[in-house]
Write a structure and sequence with these properties.
Strand order of the largest sheet: 1-2
Number of helices: 5
Largest sheet: 2 strands, antiparallel
Strand content: 5-15%
Number of strands: 2
Distance between the termini: 34 Å
Order of helices and strands: HHHEEHH
Helix content: 40-55%
Bound molecules: zinc ion
Structural class: mainly alpha
Amino acid sequence: MNEEYNTFLKSNYWKKVRKLVLIRDKYRCQICITKYAPYKYDKKDLEIHHQTYKNHKNELNHLDDLVTLCKWCHEYMHSPDDYDEMVEQEILRLMENPNS
Ligand SMILES: [Zn+2]
Ligand SMILES: [Zn+2]
């Protein structure tokens, strides 16, 4: 992770985006919710994952690019060794049908 991105994550802009995504996802990890249980993590254990960076810095208008994950699932998403395409597809499916 580079320095500029670290600064971005501390910005008020990102805090606002993060909050909107957390509220939209009801403070639940969107992987755990499909795999295990709709377990409600502590806010500090939740992170926002970018499905794409094509709208980076304009996230506020592209909240669909972002998804709430717990820090464990997030780590998993970013570890190429155990990267599981199924997980990503599940998230995409979920985002297309948020009420299913
Ligand atoms: Zn999770
Ligand atoms: Zn991520």
